[in-house]
Every structure is written in C-alpha cells, then in structure tokens.
Amino acid sequence: MKAWHFSGTNEPLVLAEIPEPEPGPGEVLLDIKAAGLCHSDVGAMTDAGWMALIDFTPIVMGHEIAGVVTKVGEGVTQVMVGDRVGVCPTAGHGAPGYQRNGGFTLQHVAHEGDLVPMPEGLSFEMAALGTDAGMTSYHAIAVRGEVAPGMKVGVIGLGGLGQIGARVGVLKGAEVHVAEVNEDVWPLAEKIGAASVVKSVEEWAGRDLDLIVDYAGFGTTTSGALKAIRQNGRVVQVGMGRLETTLDIRDVILKEAQLWGSMGGTKEDIAAIYEMLASGDIEPISTVTDFDGIPEGLEKLHRGEIQGRLVAKIAD
C-alpha cells in the first residue's frame, strides 16, 4: 500500500510501497479515513534535534489518526470491527510517526488501549484533528489551567491550538481575552465568544488575570504573561515558538507566580473535545487536503500559509 516515508532531517517525504500491516495480540487494524498535519511534523522534518525522538527510519509520519476498525487481534475486547475511532498518540503504546508508523498511509495498527470512540455526528477530519490539536488545547486550559466559571483568562495565540483553547475557556464559563498579533484573525476571537482581543500580551500588563495560557511561546509572550497575572496567578506554557526566553524573576517571586508546562494530554481529554466538536460547540478553522497533497501541505505549514489546522482526507 502507499505511504509517505520520512528518512531524515531536511529530506523530502518519499512515496513508497509498504506491506499491509497485521494486528497482533491486543491490537486492531484501522482503515485510515483522515490524518492531521501538524507543526511538529514540520519540526521533525527540518530540525535535527527531533531525530532523537524517532525510533527508526524510514518511518511513516503522521500522529493525528482517525479511521474504522477492520480487523481485531487476539484478545481484543474493547472494540469491534466497524467501530469509528481516533488514536490517542500519548496513551503509552508508542507515538505514531515517532515510535511506530503513523497515519500518512492507508492502514494503521494500533493498540486497543489507544483508541477513543467517535461520537455520532463527528467527521473523520475533526476526529483526526481532535487527537492532538484538540487534546493538547483542552488539556492545557481545562486540566493544567483548571479553568472555571468566572475566571479572567488570557489566551495567547489564535492559531490551530489557541482557537480551540479559547473556545474551551468560553464554554467552561470563563471571561476569555485573546492576544493575537495577526489582526486578520481577530474576527474569530469575537466569533468564539472572547471578551476582547489585543495585538500584544504587553497590553495586559496590570490586568490581574487569573490564568494565561500561552499557545504561542515566543519568549516575550511568556515574560509578558507573568506581568499580566494576579498575585498567585498561573501561566500555562504550551507553545514552543522559541525554546529559550528571559524572565523577570521579580514577577515570579513577588507575585508567587505559577509557571506550568503542558504537553499533550490523555484519552479523556480527547473524549471531552470530541463531544464539543460533535455538538458544534467548537468549530475550528481547518483546511482539508488529500493523500497526494500531504507533502505540499507540510510545505505550506512550514511557510505559515495555513490558518487553523490542516487535515488530509485519506478515504471516504
């Protein structure tokens, strides 16, 4: 079957023929219906530092996967043939596209413990998106941030993650404020129910926000967030736009600030975001391509030409 192989840093994806996989004990075979394209895929292709996370090459990339169970291995009891599911990339049985072959192909073997049932009405494209972008966004604001009704919350960045996180905050009853440098997407802030939108986090200085979730992570956003929270407020760091920053330690100490990191999430986070996507409470901006368009789609992500998330429709 066809697959897009990754072989090394700054090497293009190569269309290859690979054997059709067979599920082992505790595993299932999926016909892939949709696979998300992520900025971390671009990072793995362009930054040699990511190679330490990849167990072997060539490897099929793609860690956002949704499909239909077509075969079950020995001992499988939690799912059955015909089930519509998403694959949690952080559930503990090896991340697709890193520790095992991922979703930029036609079929995928996954452990039954990594699967999340899709609710009725949820498209495969949204289900694929929800396995990483949705999970990560939700986990940061709802679990690490502990967002609650009445809280004053800042969301930095209204891209693929921030648009989901901000909407989750609104749905949880918080007063959500957005900082987004790209004014072209400001109307989206109003659409999702944000109370206000500014160009820079620096405009929040002295606002005494309870919680700020930084989905951008460009260094100055992190330091600016610490100046905008209240005494004992919390900053949750998700974005990795820059891997180093300088902080004013006075803000950390005098405010007794909480600076928390957030990475990925859980099956429970995916299930929660699936319900919000299926109900229409969250309608993220997304672009759909096809299997053949995966390499070009990753190039567009690299050039910053995609608003929201990008998903490949693999099959009907």
UniProtKB/TrEMBL annotation:
The keyword Oxidoreductase applies. Residues 8-312 form the Enoyl reductase (ER) domain. Keywords: Metal-binding, Oxidoreductase, Zinc. The keyword Lipid metabolism does not apply. InterPro entries: ADH-like_C, ADH-like_N, ADH_Zn_CS, ER, GroES-like_sf, NAD(P)-bd_dom_sf. Its cofactor is Zn(2+). Pfam families: ADH_N (PF08240), ADH_zinc_N (PF00107). CDD domains: hydroxyacyl_CoA_DH. GO terms for molecular function: oxidoreductase activity; zinc ion binding. PROSITE patterns: ADH_ZINC. Belongs to the zinc-containing alcohol dehydrogenase family. This is Alcohol dehydrogenase. The lineage of its organism: Bacteria, Bacillati, Actinomycetota, Actinomycetes, Micrococcales.
